[in-house]
Design brief:
Largest sheet: 9 strands, mixed
Structural class: alpha+beta
Number of strands: 40
Number of helices: 30
Strand order of the largest sheet: 5-4-6-7-3-8-9-10-11
């Protein structure tokens, strides 16, 4: 059927008034109630059946049925409570199946406002559905209830649809006032029309008396809500606030609506919110929101944790900085997509065949979009509040930082220097938001969602926007220290450490170096029951494997910058140096013996570790949170000290901590050396196991070191390709790698992303001190979190007493299958070795009780 072909509505008078409904038309009826809508719907679908059309009734679950068991009509039911994207995709799927030239009757769009608590998302649904129906040359009827929606939402619907008709009923009088009729015109078309029951015609109102009667009728039907400048969610909050101010109470069901629509849908988080949040807390969050929707997992976790501490540990809360964060609501993410007209690309990317291939196109679309003016104005007001202090824009997606899905390091966080004219600051902020949005398309995030079956679930990106905590120096800003903390530590480097006491990972300056594996740097690990028990054996190791570089906000460079520790000492007061720096007394003595007087300082946060008030505070903080969550947690925080020794901390993040499987007790055999690859103690993480290894990928330490620097990234890609090729074989894979896995510095180890190693069941880092390779468990880093969540076993082969035995030549007699699997990488066969061990009975044994791990040729898989 051709586009714009005339169709019969079942009401000849209506056809005459509108010069017919045409193929491709979406017809929106604005009515006082659904009875008025049915006056037009029933003739429409009966005429369609008579004309042999394909006609579909799109029923919203919970909405009263408009059409029951009508022969010739196919009914589909959709559940708005499943969320915007799931609902919208389900509707789109049925429209696709119906194909061209179909006719539709939809339930009331206003019900979507109720399900999603906001006009904004109802408007988004219509803006993505209406054009698709138009493209398929359909005719669709939609009703909305007059006075329920904001003027902005009505304008968006009117702009998108082909026909927008205002309908009024009073006693026996029925009027239709066409507000939009696309590509049709007559001198009287946009006048109010009155229905004539005698002959079914619609006559335009021309006489002064009739016109005055019509407008008098309009005045007797005031909007259901007085202020239609507000979104429905804004009206709900305004009413709840007024009631709370008048009565001092807020009903539980109202608080539940706040919690579900603004905070979380996770049942366990909702239970905690019900226990700890007050009406003032919800209203405070609302007043800090930009747009509507949910604040997301990261923001919710931070807010909930702070409230738990305020309630259950007020002495700890007294040392906590007040927070003044803002939250960009999750609805803004979809609105951005709809506003910039790449919704079709967004949903196409979610298909199995295009999941990875279209991600770069969608990433580019995110980076080039613009924001609705209403959002820009709210961002501007937020910048006025922060002044010219640096801020950080952090991801806070719906699925992030929840039970089972941490998304650690998968999405971007972007620092904004926030200096200069406000328009420049707004431009910088908008670029940061685009960058976080675009990070939903990075490979690691895509792999993570796919591995966990989250591809089809709503993953709206909300944002947490925080003031950077710290002190202003001459030309830079940074906190005294920062770090991550764990209420339970699965890694014990000493028999005396109690895992349940918790552990900290501390760095000087910004906390970026506490969560990433960065060049030449090792953060300070502190077990909270014995904070001074180091995992380093002597002064040389403490200096060698310490923090050498500091991240900070540099005003001159207008960027996050990295400075060497020694370059910052001139800016640091003595009390601050004592807090985070340590002297290498042996090195200083050596210099003195040569007649050179030089301070040799390195950062290890020893002053913090020695401060019992600090370690006790962190221990109680973590214990309190774990008790409330009934689950281990990890946190991110900053520390700011003072000359008198006092300190405050800022709690930036809290989420459930995935600690991996512990497994049953495993008997680790004492294999003879000729049958063992290695035997280590106190250097593994990942629980007890006895697991047969089918394939070993071995990156030779010396050959990798001698590889040209620019080709080290190619070695990482080679491992990534092997990870991909072998994943479908249902074999267990083990990787041996020099130094640090996932480092950003190829000279320190293999610079792979987690997506390039996620199919390995075990990772082994190898030390080689002669050429500078040193394993680091990086407990608490994003790479660590990925290993734990994926259940990947980790072990390190050090060149110290932790390694009882390591036969580097164990695999030397085995053929290298690299060229069989990746012939194009044959030139790297001296570096990357692939050993097929399926006939060798190679078994990885580990027991968490005796902290011993052995890899060797076993005789059975037993305990």
């Amino acid at each position: 059927m051709s586009t714009f072909e005339r169709v019969n509505s079942g009401l000849p008078g209506l056809d005459a008034m509108l010069d017919n409904i045409r193929m491709g038309d979406n017809v929106v009826w604005q009515v006082a109630d659904m009875t008025d809508y049915m006056f037009f719907v029933e003739p429409f679908y009966k005429q369609a059946i008579k004309d042999g059309r394909k006609i579909y009734y799109m029923h919203f679950k919970g909405h009263p049925l408009l059409i029951e068991d009508e022969p010739g009509i196919t009914t589909y039911e959709f559940d708005p409570s499943e969320g915007f994207e799931t609902f919208t995709m389900a509707v789109r799927t049925k429209i696709t199946e119906a194909g061209w030239d179909a006719f539709y009757v939809f339930d009331c769009l206003s019900d979507l406002q109720i399900a999603w608590s906001t006009d904004l998302m109802m408007g988004n649904f219509f803006q993505v559905t209406c054009p698709y129906l138009f493209d398929l040359n359909t005719v669709a009827f939609f009703p909305i209830i007059r006075g329920l929606h904001s003027y902005d939402t009505i304008a968006r619907i009117q702009e998108t649809t082909q026909l927008f008709l205002d309908m009024y009923m009073h006693d026996e009088d029925l009027y239709v006032n066409p507000l939009k009729v696309w590509q049709r015109y007559s001198p009287n078309m946009f006048l109010p029309h009155q229905y004539q029951a005698s002959d079914g015609s619609f006559l335009p109102l021309k006489g002064g008396y009739e016109v005055s009667q019509f407008y008098a009728l309009m005045d007797t039907q005031p909007p259901l809500y007085e202020n239609q400048d507000l979104d429905s969610w804004e009206r709900f909050v305004a009413n709840a606030t007024q009631t709370y101010q008048d009565t001092g109470t807020m009903p539980d069901d109202v608080q539940d609506i706040f919690a579900r629509n603004m905070m979380s849908t996770d049942a366990r988080i909702l239970d905690l919110l019900k226990m700890y949040f007050t009406p003032e807390d919800y209203l405070h969050v609302y007043n800090r929101m930009i747009g509507t929707g949910c604040v997301g997992g990261k923001a919710c976790g931070m807010l909930l944790a702070r409230k738990i501490i305020e309630t259950d540990a007020p002495d700890v809360a007294a040392l906590m900085e007040p927070h003044d964060s803002y939250y960009l609501g999750s609805d803004v993410f979809y609105t951005y997509i709809v506003h910039n007209k790449f919704w079709r690309l967004h949903i196409q990317q979610k298909t199995e065949e295009d999941y990875f291939t279209l991600a770069p196109d969608l990433e580019k679309a995110f980076m080039t979009g613009t924001f609705p003016e209403s959002i820009r104005q709210q961002l501007m007001r937020m910048l006025e509040y922060f002044g010219q202090w640096p801020i950080i824009v952090r991801s806070s997606s719906l699925q992030e930082d929840g039970f089972g899905n941490a998304f650690a390091g998968k999405y971007e966080s972007v620092f904004c220097i926030n200096s200069g004219p406000i328009n420049d600051r707004l431009t910088e902020l908008e670029a940061a938001i685009r960058t976080v949005y675009a990070s939903t398309m990075n490979r690691s995030a895509l792999e993570y969602r796919k591995e966990r079956g989250l591809v089809v679930r709503d993953e709206q990106m909300a944002l947490l926007i925080q003031r950077v905590s710290g002190s202003l120096y001459d030309e830079f800003v940074m906190p005294s220290a920062a770090g991550v903390g764990y209420s339970y530590s699965a890694y014990r480097w000493n028999d005396d450490i109690d895992p349940s006491a918790g552990m900290l990972r501390l760095v000087m300056g910004l906390g970026t170096r506490a969560v990433d594996r960065t060049e030449g740097d090792y953060p300070r690990l502190a077990a909270l029951d014995k904070p001074n028990v180091s995992n380093m054996t002597g002064p040389w190791e403490k200096h060698q494997f310490s923090q050498r570089f500091v991240d900070l906000i540099d005003y001159d460079l207008k960027a996050v910058a990295t400075r060497q520790v020694q370059d910052l000492t001139k800016h640091m007061a003595p009390w601050y140096q004592k807090l985070v720096l340590e002297h290498d007394w042996d090195a200083e003595r050596t210099f003195r013996e040569r007649g050179i007087h030089r301070e040799v300082l390195y950062a290890d946060c020893q002053g913090l570790v020695d401060n019992q008030a600090f370690t006790d505070c962190m221990k109680k903080l973590l214990h309190t949170l774990q008790e409330a969550y009934h689950y281990p947690v990890d946190i991110e925080f900053t520390i700011n000290g003072s000359p008198g020794g006092a300190f405050v901390f800022n709690l930036l993040q809290c989420r459930p901590l995935q600690i991996g499987r512990q497994g049953e007790s495993v008997t680790v055999p004492d294999l003879p050396e000729k049958r063992a690859v290695f035997s280590v103690v106190n250097s593994s993480m990942g629980g007890s196991r006895a697991e047969k290894i089918d394939q070993v990928v071995f990156v030779d330490t010396r050959a990798y070191y001698n590889c040209p620097y620019k080709e080290k990234a190619v070695i990482a890609r080679t491992v990534g390709n092997l990870n991909e090729i072998l994943k479908s074989s249902n074999q267990t894979l083990m990787l041996f790698t020099p130094g640090r896995i996932g480092t950003s510095s190829p000279e320190l180890g293999l610079p792979v992303s987690f997506a390039e190693i996620h199919n390995f069941c075990a990772i082994c880092e190898m030390a080689d001190a002669d050429i500078g390779y040193m394993p680091e468990l990086s407990y608490g880093s994003h790479m660590f979190q990925d290993l734990v969540e994926a259940g990947i076993f980790y072990t390190a082969i050090y060149e110290n007493e932790k390694t009882l035995y390591f036969n580097k030549d164990f695999f030397s007699g085995e053929p290298n299958h690299l060229t069989d699997l990746l012939p194009e990488y044959g030139e790297y066969a001296n570096i990357v070795k692939v050993y097929d061990m399926r006939k060798k009975n190679l078994i990885l044994y580990s027991d968490v009780e005796n902290k011993k791990t052995v890899l060797g040729l076993g005789t059975e898989l037993g305990t």
